[in-house]
Design a protein that fits this description.
152 residues, mainly beta, OB fold (Dihydrolipoamide Acetyltransferase, E2P), 5-stranded mixed beta barrel, 1 helix, 7% helix
Length: 152
C-alpha cells in the first residue's frame, strides 16, 4: 500500500526532489533484505515462453553503508528448483534436504541473508549503456558473529 504522504495532488505543486542515484556495486558478497517479489509470465519470443517467473528485488548494503538495489528473475522450471531452495534457505527459512518444500511467498519480503552480486550491463533501446546489480547466487546463512547483518 502506498504511504499517504507520498501521494501528490494532481493540481498541486510538484516538489523539487532530486532523482536518486542508482548505485552499482562491485562484484562480491553482500547482506540483503528482500524488498519485494513479483510474479510474471514470460512473453512470446522469450526462450522460457509459456513458463512463469518470480522476480526478487533486494536491498544490499556496501562497506560504506550505501544502500543499493539488486534483483534476479527465476523461471518457474524444474531446472531452477535449486535457486528457490537457495533463496529460502538464505533468507532463514527451513528447507529440508531431499524433501519438497512449499514456499510461503508472503513471508519473503523483509527477510534477510547474504547473496553474491555482480553488475550486468546492456544496451537499452535508445542505444545507451545501462548497468544494474544482479544477484548471481543466494548464499547459506553463517553462524559467524563477525559476519553480523548490518542495520537496514
Amino acid at each position: 500500500m502506498i504511504n499517504a504522504s507520498d501521494i501528490l495532488d494532481i493540481d498541486g505543486a510538484i516538489p523539487d526532489i532530486p532523482k536518486e542515484e542508482y548505485i552499482i556495486l562491485q562484484p562480491g558478497v553482500y547482506h540483503y533484505r528482500v524488498a519485494s517479489f513479483t510474479r510474471g509470465d514470460y512473453k512470446q519470443g522469450h526462450k522460457n515462453y509459456g513458463a512463469k517467473y518470480v522476480e526478487i528485488v533486494v536491498t544490499c548494503i556496501d562497506d560504506e553503508g550505501n544502500e543499493a538495489t539488486a534483483k534476479t528473475k527465476i523461471p518457474m522450471l524444474k531446472s531452477s528448483a535449486w535457486k528457490f531452495r537457495d533463496l529460502f534457505l538464505s533468507a532463514g527459512f527451513a528447507v529440508e534436504q531431499g524433501k519438497p518444500f512449499h514456499p510461503d511467498w508472503n513471508l519473503l519480503p523483509g527477510s534477510s541473508g547474504r547473496c553474491s552480486v555482480e553488475p550486468y550491463t546492456f544496451t537499452g533501446n535508445d542505444g545507451q549503456q545501462i548497468s544494474m546489480n544482479t544477484i548471481k547466487k543466494f548464499l547459506p546463512p553463517v553462524d559467524d558473529a563477525s559476519s553480523a547483518e548490518p542495520g537496514f
